[in-house]
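B., you asked whether I could sanity-check this one before it goes into the benchmark set. Here's the sequence:
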Amino acid sequence: MKAMNVGLLGIGTVGGGTYAVLERNQSEIARRAGCPIRISVVADKDLDRAARVTGGKVRVVDDAFAVVSDPEVDIVVELIGGTTIARELMLAAIAQGKHVVTANKALLAHHGNEIFAAAYRAGVMVAFEGAVAGGVPIIKALREGLTANRIEWIAGIINGTSNYILSEMRSKRVSFATALGDAQRLGYAEADPTFDIEGIDASHKLTIMAAIAFGIPMQVDKVYTEGIARLSPEDIRYAEELGYRIKLLGITRRTPVGLELRVHPTLVPSTRLIANVEGVMNAILVQADAVGRTLYYGAGAGAEPTASAVVADLVDVTRMHSASRKHQVPYLAFQPDQLSDIPILPMEEVQTSYYLRIRAYDRPGVLADVTRILADRQISIEAMVQREPSEGEDQVDVIMRTNRTIEKNMVAALDGIEALASIVGKVIRIRLEEL
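And here's what the prediction gave me:
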């Protein structure tokens, strides 16, 4: 039984995990795949590390393009990251007629349309389960398990670093800066955490899920993206008092006038399962017409959780590598000539509910002015709490929860409220979803 030869590009955290999982479970994997799957060559700039991880059992080179052009390599696994050299390597592998497996969400979000088009012309597979939510098999669920369904919406905690920070802020009553420092000390956050805390990483993953769920091209440039860096412990505490928890969610929803694509902090009822996902874990909630609501939960990052997804892709590719293109699962679930041009709604047209925290002087008539401005924009108040001023202070926090309204109406209302002489500073606004 001929083995499938894999060329592994990058043997860092995920690459090392992939090698370890394949080595440890090779017998089980071969029984499932129908033939052995073995890494025959590894490309990494750090040759000493590569030799150490592989124990000298595998050929190691420092030229990734040499692996791509190696006639003995059947499948190329790209785990280098980034969107420049990785893109060149993937396109080169496809041009050589090789199947490709990747966990590179940024590459797919930005260049997936080009990569999938090239792969379709070459008749090869591109598999990317590890690109979203690590070891959680959400890509396979959306692309295959839910294929009978019309998917209505997806809401996901898809960045473990941000979820850890928010969990720490809530449970330990600490500031964002303190929780971020803890995340960096524990290795959950990078030295430069921008991609995680500003929602960029989540926007890449949401782009991929939306493309599969709705049969649209990758459109990362149309994702509204807002991070968690400006959240305060006060808002997390007030949200909890109202029966909500704040999570950084990636949300995509089908509406009569287009698709929503948005990443931002969101109040979620504390009774929802997804609101109780803590630490670095990921969870994705999918609403579909036939099956209803399903939840996918697990480790969203890490060496072996992500390696689990990469190896699962290797097994899928091995099973199907000799099948004709018409028998292969389409890259984005829908046939390439059946992708839709459904418009993406700009954020100002999205409807949602809101949590508002207004800092105001403790004077008569202030609430009347605020509610009048909201009413003028057809925004109704669902609940309101006024905090007692601290001793010696003449300012209070007013907490409001609104009914659903269009974002542009809320923006206009907040401009009017902030212009009032009785209002101190900016109004804190966080979107709210009942899910």
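One thing to flag: DSSP finds 15 helices and 17 strands in the chain. Otherwise nothing jumped out at me.
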